[in-house]
Amino acid sequence: MQSIKARNLFFAASVAAIGMSAGLANAAELKIWHHTYPPAEEFIKQKAAEYSKLHPDVTFQFQSDPHGDYEVKLLAAIAAGEAPDLINVLDYLYPKFVSKGILAEANLPAMGVKTNEELEALYSPGALKGLMINDKIYGLPEELNTFALFMNKEHFAEVGIDVTDKANWPKSWDDLFTLAKKVQKKDENGNFTRLGFNWVFGLDGFWYAMEYWPILNQYGCEVLDTAGKATINSPQCVAAFTDTWQRLVTDGIGGPDFATVNPVNALQDFSDGRQSMMMAGIWSPPLFGEDVKKNYVVAPIPQKDPANPKTLLYNYSMTVTQASKNQEEAWRFLRFLTSDGDGYLRNTGYVTGLKDWEKSEAAKDTIGADIFADQLQYGNYYWRSLTWNEEGKAIKDAIEQMMQGTSVQEALDQAAKQIDFVRSQQ
Questions:
Q1: Residue 141, SS3?
Q2: Which helix (H) or strand (E) holds 277?
Q3: SS3 assignment, position 186
Q4: pLDDT given for residue 149 in this prediction
Q5: 245 exposure class (CB count in 10 Å sphere: 0-12, 13-18, 19+)
Q6: Which of 12-16, 63-67, 143-147, 174-178 has the lowest mean pLDDT?
Q7: Could you tell me the end-to-end alpha-carbon distance of the chain, in angstroms, rounded to an integer?
Q8: What is the mean pLDDT of residues 339-368?
Q9: H/E element holding 150?
């Protein structure tokens, strides 16, 4: 049987060969926009340089902005007639971007395939699902992900808990908060010197959603009903936020006052050893401090019902804009770029979702890759809406109100009203 690495190298070489025969006649400059994540930026630039060696007529420009600013600047550039060729887009934005004519449909021949089915066969089951509208593919995965629980094993060893033993992993949210109290540290004045656990605070609505979406799935909380009316204030949603987010404050474990806000590395406190547990994606270790890189363990996130696990699934994709004058070349480069799944995983921590990625040598060398591969099967994509950003912000605002003492029900009632208002303005 052909190895995974050989199969991907063959496909990349095939795409490159197509470009060699088709691209020499026309010079092209491809502008790439990406959210700020230094490991990914460096890897993309490396692959762009490799591509230019194969295709001297193709050059690149690269721009990145922190996630919270990225979409605003991108939409402004598109409106001004200055759209880049390739862009980094989260799956929940596809309905909005496709409806506005921002995204180009995938150019299959440029990527060396003839049908959607042939392209899908190159990926893990469901990897392209979040990037399809009306059975048309509009992007390729750069970061197919779910969340897991990262634990600093050295911190736990200090209090006599061996988290390399799966028996000591928190199965429920009660377990998590109990462990957090055991491993946290305070000085003689009662001030935290180390947090056991904390949520990410002070960033954009998507960051909050990555952390609450798996919990909402576990509790049966729907943001919208089938008619499109907000249900974020339902009893299930109130219970979800009460048991997890509000509890952080009521139990005196953490909260926004103790979180370091960093839009480039949202997990700064864990990365620097000031926090013992965090929820994050497989992409996070490249930004860890050297001590933490040597001392972390990856486990599944806690569950409301451990026998029926549920979590999130999201796809931070790469795609081509409708406004690009070099669409064919852009799609050809995009396939060349994302076909290097091993390179992505080793250099950035990103899983591009290629078929059997979890069996690759890079996955074998990645701590927790087996956990992430297993948990993907329990994930659900975010709710779909043309006003997702506004709805996500309403929920983020509600969470921040809870942290300041507003009751969960009152905060979510306000969020539901805001969501219904936003949707009424479509």
A1: strand
A2: strand 275-280
A3: strand
A4: 98
A5: buried
A6: 12-16
A7: 52
A8: 95
A9: strand 148-152
SS3 102: coil
- Asked if residue 66 lies in contact with residue 36, where contact means CB atoms within 8 angstroms, the answer is yes
pTM across the whole model: 0.88
**b/e code 334-350 from CB counts within 10 Å (16+ = b):** bbbbbbbbbbbbbbbbb
- As given in the structure block, the two tokens for residue 119 are 């392209």
Judge residue 160's burial from the number of C-beta atoms within 10 Å of its C-beta, 0-12 exposed, 13-18 middle, 19 or more buried. exposed
The vertex-85 CA angle with 80 and 87, nearest 5°, equals 90
Strand partners, 298: 150
In angstroms, how far is CA 198 from the centroid of its own chain? 18
Residue corresponding to tokens 């479509």 = 426
Taking all residues of the chain, what is their mean pLDDT, rounded to a whole number?
93
pLDDT digits (tens, 9 = 90+) for 237-252: 999 999 999 999 999 9
Strands 275-280 and 148-152: antiparallel
Place of tokens 């949520």: 199
What pLDDT digit, counting tens, does each position of 403-420 carry?
999 999 999 999 999 999
pLDDT digits (tens, 9 = 90+) for 268-282: 999 999 999 999 999
Token reading at 296? 């972390």
Amino acid identity of residue 317, one-letter, is: S
Residues 86, 97: Cα–Cα separation, whole Å:
14
Under 8 Å CB-to-CB from 161, ≥6 apart: which residues? Answer: 168, 179, 182, 183
Residue type, 362: A
